[in-house]
Amino acid sequence: MTTPLDPEMFDPVCPSGLMPFRVGDKWTGMIIQCLADGPRRFSELRVPLRNITPKVLTKSLRALERDGFVVRTESAGAPRHVAYRLTPLGRSLLGLLDAARAWAQEHLHEVLDAREAASGSRLPR
């Protein structure tokens, strides 16, 4: 028998709910990876992220900017030039993303097998 979980194991005043880790969402990790080699314009980001809508890309970039991972720079003049770049805080995520990608490459077949087994074991409703 295992030891019961402590009902106080998560401190109610812990700010973990405020943590800005959005890396697990569908687009954030890919956006950060696109910015790894330097500043990019919105239209440049849309090339490798071809399945993201402009609205979702804007929302994701704003969230990354709000949390301090990305800086938006607008240059004066016509036409207006807006670029996004990683902050040092954003750059600190690159190693974590590399580790997550390596883990996924090593274990993807196991995850897919588990999903297939789970979907095959369910009875139709």
UniProtKB/TrEMBL annotation:
Annotated ranges, domain HTH hxlR-type: 14-112
User: InterPro entries, per this entry?
Assistant: HTH_HxlR, WH-like_DNA-bd_sf, WH_DNA-bd_sf
Supply the alphabetized keyword list. DNA-binding, Transcription, Transcription regulation
Which spans of this chain does the record mark as coiled coil?
none
Gene Ontology molecular function: any one = DNA binding
Keyword hit for DNA-binding: yes
* Protein's UniProt keywords contain Transmembrane: no
Q: What is this protein called?
A: Helix-turn-helix transcriptional regulator
Organism of origin is Streptomyces misionensis
